[in-house]
């Protein structure tokens, strides 16, 4: 054993007592040679080996997700250190992602995501619909920290980048059927169909998902809460008119139906003005029964989009354009008080359209010692959100109608370059300029006893600019050992408070800024049978945008500053033939500093959805079974420590989930599998609101939304 292997091996072992094996960026598993695969990622907007990419990144292939029985993007948090997510309260279609404590707490359209979600390079502007159903996926990459000098849109906390499979040059495909508990019936079909081999190829993918919710609604609508019915499709075309020009176009659409999420009432305070006598008799008797007083309790989401990527190789450099257009419509009812009283019900109707255009030029120079990329980005998003709010605190027979229309135009110029000083040492520098032009038209009305009163009818406009740099240094200590350090800044645009009760409350909140120092190591050892990656970070997080509850009303405000620091450790090992062990541990320390008064936070408060510890462990064993085929068994464990799941009083104790899957593959074509998610049926909350003070304006309600229950099922798939 050489000195490098000894030192890194000792460093890895210091983590093992509390972690077992930590998960590496695991995109595929093991190659045919018995070594851990080289993983190709596009985190730097060009293809590089994961182990040569100086960013804290976890990459998981579509096959690895299938081996874990993952069908929705939300579930990748179970395999990724320092990544958490929540569908929030508005709709189970929403995807609110948090990386190292930075994300989006509020589902309203006046706030931007703190973590950018990209599909084939196209940014998704809303958390609505971002709980993506995974179909024909090549890989998912989770990039931690600001990525503004490489990605088109602002990504202050990080990015979740999905890459779909490209059409193949020959005819083929795959069909899958999944049947499970709660009347689960899923099906998917993917077909590669070359139109003109060598010139134009195509791929068509279809998906349907159907499952009943785990909770019974004893309200007027009846049935189950959390039903899901999905029909989705994608068509992809790969056109190569010349040897140096490629054109990739995709068209996708999703129709998602189901019933609203279930709000469990955990307590009422009769001293609150809006809580009627006897309300405590409506406290949810258990976490399987819930009550919704909304009759039209069906949640609906329609979304579609088209994207085109054009790449022209000019020899000395390459030009690339990424164009995207998307539309979204959503209807989302939620009975927040979870009772037969109309205390705090919200019905949301949302329409969104976005147009994005990104232009890049990248290449190498000075004998390939300089690698560079420059780009420009334009983003135009229009939203119309209409809400009906029942709010008992404001009096009987009261409704509030919010009608607001945010409009964003964003422009950016960015660039990054890396220069090899020696064969081992390189430096990186990048810079981004961003300008956000925003407006919001608000028309809010109150209704009392059938009489409407206009309370707000106004338009607000403002713009913000930011310059965010990145610098870094990378040292290739040996061929398979990379050390790096970087400093980067991130920016999330400001906006306007949509929860206004008077024209003078339509005030803006400022952009967030993050300054991040990161240092890391990536190493392969023992003939590439052990991979260990480590990254440590320190973040100065300023002008944090929060959703503050004051006098019974929420508002968007800048809270102050926070300091976050921690690390991610990831490891993959192949200790024996057919055995793959991986896992990960993440630590995030998050505390507020320099807080503004009157926002309900203290310096001891934790940031939302930022557990101190996230741990994931997994093992997979495969072997040939004579006369049958190849059998594979996999088991995964994911743990999150205590975390704030909305407000400082909304603490959820730590919990762990266990998933497993066993499969039999026959002739590399036919596969049968059994799976289990949340095998031990752990009950845990993903959102909790506690406002039992009973003071003036108090909601007088505590409620929570529960996570997914256990699901067992079987799968059958065939390749052709």
TrEMBL record:
Membrane topology: Multi-pass membrane protein
InterPro entries registered for this protein in UniProt: Beta-barrel_TonB (IPR000531), Beta-barrel_TonB_sf (IPR036942), Plug_dom (IPR012910), TonB-dep_rcpt-like (IPR039426)
Pfam families, A to Z: Plug (PF07715), TonB_dep_Rec_b-barrel (PF00593)
Keywords per UniProt: Cell outer membrane, Ion transport, Iron, Iron transport, Membrane, Signal, TonB box, Transmembrane, Transmembrane beta strand, Transport
Cross-referenced Gene3D superfamilies: TonB-dependent receptor, beta-barrel domain
Domain (TonB-dependent receptor-like beta-barrel) ranges: 253-679
Descriptive protein name: Iron complex outermembrane recepter protein
Species assigned in the record: Rhizorhabdus histidinilytica
């Amino acid at each position: 054993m050489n000195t490098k292997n000894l030192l890194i091996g000792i460093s890895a072992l210091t983590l093992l007592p509390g972690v077992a094996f930590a998960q590496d960026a695991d995109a595929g598993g093991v190659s045919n040679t018995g070594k851990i695969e080289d993983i190709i990622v596009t985190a730097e907007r060009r293809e590089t080996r994961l182990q040569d990419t100086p960013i804290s990144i976890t990459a998981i292939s579509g096959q690895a997700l299938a081996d874990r029985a993952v069908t929705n993007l939300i579930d990748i948090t179970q395999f990724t250190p320092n990544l958490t997510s929540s569908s929030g309260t508005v709709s189970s279609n929403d995807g609110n992602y948090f990386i190292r404590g930075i994300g989006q707490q509020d589902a309203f359209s006046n706030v931007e995501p703190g973590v950018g979600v990209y599909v084939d390079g196209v940014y998704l502007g809303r958390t609505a619909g971002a709980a993506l159903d995974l179909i024909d996926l090549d890989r998912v990459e989770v990039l931690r920290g600001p990525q503004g000098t490489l990605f088109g849109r602002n990504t202050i906390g990080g990015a979740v980048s999905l890459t779909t499979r490209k059409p193949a040059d020959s005819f083929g495909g795959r069909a899958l059927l999944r049947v499970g508990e709660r009347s689960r019936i899923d099906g998917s079909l993917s077909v590669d169909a070359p139109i003109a081999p060598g010139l134009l190829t195509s791929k068509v993918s279809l998906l349907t998902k159907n499952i009943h919710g785990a909770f019974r609604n004893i309200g007027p609508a009846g049935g189950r809460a959390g039903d899901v019915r999905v029909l989705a499709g994608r068509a992809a075309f790969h056109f190569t008119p010349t040897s140096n020009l490629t054109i990739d176009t995709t068209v996708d659409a999703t129709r998602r139906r189901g019933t609203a999420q279930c709000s469990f009432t955990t307590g009422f305070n009769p001293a609150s003005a809006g809580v009627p006598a006897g309300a405590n008799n409506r406290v949810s008797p258990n976490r399987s029964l819930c009550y919704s007083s909304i009759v039209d309790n069906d949640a609906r989401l329609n979304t579609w989009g088209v994207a085109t990527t054009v790449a022209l190789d000019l020899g000395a450099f390459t030009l690339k354009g990424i164009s995207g257009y998307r539309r979204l419509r959503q209807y989302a009812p939620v009975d927040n008080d979870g009772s037969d009283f109309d205390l705090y019900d919200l019905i949301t109707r949302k329409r969104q359209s976005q147009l994005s255009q990104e232009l890049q030029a990248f290449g190498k120079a000075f004998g390939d010692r300089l690698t560079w990329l420059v780009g420009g980005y334009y983003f135009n998003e229009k939203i119309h959100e209409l809400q009906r709010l029942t709010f008992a605190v404001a009096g009987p027979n009261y409704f509030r109608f919010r009608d607001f229309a945010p409009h964003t135009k964003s422009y950016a110029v960015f660039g990054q370059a890396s220069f090899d000083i020696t064969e081992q040492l390189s430096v990186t520098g990048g810079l981004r300029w961003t300008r956000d032009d925003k407006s919001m038209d608000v028309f809010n009305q109150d209704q009392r006893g059938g009489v409407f009163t206009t309370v707000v009818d106004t338009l607000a406009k403002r713009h913000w600019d930011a310059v965010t740099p990145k610098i870094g240094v990378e040292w290739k200590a040996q061929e398979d050992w990379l050390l790096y350090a970087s400093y980067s800044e991130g920016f999330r645009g400001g906006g306007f408070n949509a929860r206004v009760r008077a024209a003078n409350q339509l005030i803006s909140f400022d952009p967030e800024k993050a300054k991040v120092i990161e240092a890391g190591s990536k190493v392969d050892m023992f003939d590439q049978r052990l991979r260990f990656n480590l990254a440590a970070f320190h973040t100065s997080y300023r002008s944090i945008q929060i959703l503050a509850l004051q006098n019974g009303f929420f508002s968007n405000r800048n809270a102050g500053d926070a300091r976050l620091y921690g690390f991610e450790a990831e490891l993959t090992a192949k200790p024996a033939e057919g055995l793959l062990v991986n896992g990960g541990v993440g630590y995030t320390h998050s505390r507020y500093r320099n807080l503004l008064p009157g926002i309900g936070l203290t310096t001891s408060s934790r940031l939302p959805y930022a557990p101190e510890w996230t741990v994931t462990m997994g093992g997979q064993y495969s072997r040939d079974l004579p006369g049958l085929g190849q059998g594979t068994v996999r088991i995964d464990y994911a743990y999150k420590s205590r975390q704030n799941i909305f407000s400082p009083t909304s603490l959820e104790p730590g919990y762990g989930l266990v998933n497993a899957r066993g499969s039999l593959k026959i002739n590399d074509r036919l596969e049968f599998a059994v799976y289990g998610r949340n095998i031990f049926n752990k009950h845990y909350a993903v959102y909790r609101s506690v406002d039992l003070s009973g003071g003036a304006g108090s909601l007088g309600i505590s409620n929570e939304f529960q996570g997914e229950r256990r699901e067992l099922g079987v799968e059958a798939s065939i390749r052709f």
